[in-house]
# Entry
Amino acid sequence: MTSALADGVVIVDKRDNIEWWNRSAERQFDFTPQDLGRKLTNYIRHPRFVDYYESDCYDEPLELVSMRQEGQTLQFHIHRFGDGDRLVIARDITHIANLERMRKDFVANVSHELRTPLTVINGYLETLVDSAELSPAWNKPLDQMQGQTRRMTGLITDLLTLSRLETEDREAGQSPVALRPLLEQIVAEAKVLSGERAHIFEIKCEPRVELLGLENELRSAFANLIYNAVNYTGSGRKISVVVELKPVEVIVKVKDNGDGIDPRHLPRLTERFYRVDHGRSRETGGTGLGLSIVKHILLRHDADLRIRSKLKKGSVFACHFPIKRFVKNVGEH
Ligand code: ADP
# Structure
């Protein structure tokens, strides 16, 4: 049955040696009879495959551009069975990957092309607003036009950020990022955003905690969460940013005691344009893309976002980073 499958199937024994393969796997990896009993990671050497294979955590499949056949994308599933044996399934998803690439390119190109006309419209609007000859009857429409162009500019910036996050090499330029000063900066900006609503801010973070990553991206992720807390929390309430060091992970939590979110919305919250209350989000100047951006940035840092919330009680947005991202400073215990 497995030899009739279009998917490549390889069985690996508990010592990681190849035990059996089907016809599709033979084509995908150019196996010859001599390869029986050899290590699979000698044939699929891509560092991400080796990491995935050795991680022993196969809840999510792994997608890789093939190093053997140009332009081919493979999706790997691994299942454990029997006495430490593993079933490795390699599915050719080149067609889906190409469509996905076309979608990403389309969004990136449209966003890019819309930027110039918007800048021109914005420029003329500013001139008109400053013009002394215009009748006061134009004040309100011009104000609305400016508001809408600001919204559109925000949307385009967020869409471009998302496309960049999806396409850029995620390993490039990573370095230790000190969390405390970063969070202090963001909170200082959040205080300006809060303005007369006078939220109370609190930061709990050891002074020397550093995470390996991209500073700009981490800033953008935490800022999105902290600004959301400001936007969806009533005046004078408390917003805390807490960094917890655990044996296997570092958690950055943004807690508020604001509006809270009905649990039925939680699974879909990080989808693009998903908003619990469209009117409310528009009022706060939201694009509905903030949490998607956070999710993508965390993914690029091997981290994940967990959301807990209770209506009228508040929410906790927790970013869980694996301990390998924590930079141990010399002299620290
Ligand atoms: P938006 O730009 O609309 O804020 P996000 O992707 O940042 O988009 O958030 C998606 C939705 O999640 C928001 O529209 C809002 O309904 C909900 N949300 C996000 N953060 C909070 C929070 N701290 N408290 C309550 N609701 C929130």
Observations:
- The helical segments are 23-29, 47-55, 94-130, 139-167, 179-194, 215-231, 278-283, 290-300.
- The mean pLDDT is 92.
- The longest strand covers residues 73-81.
- The pocket of adenosine-5'-diphosphate is lined by residues 224, 228-229, 232, 256, 258-259, 261, 269, 275-277, 281, 286-291, 315 (CB under 6 Å).
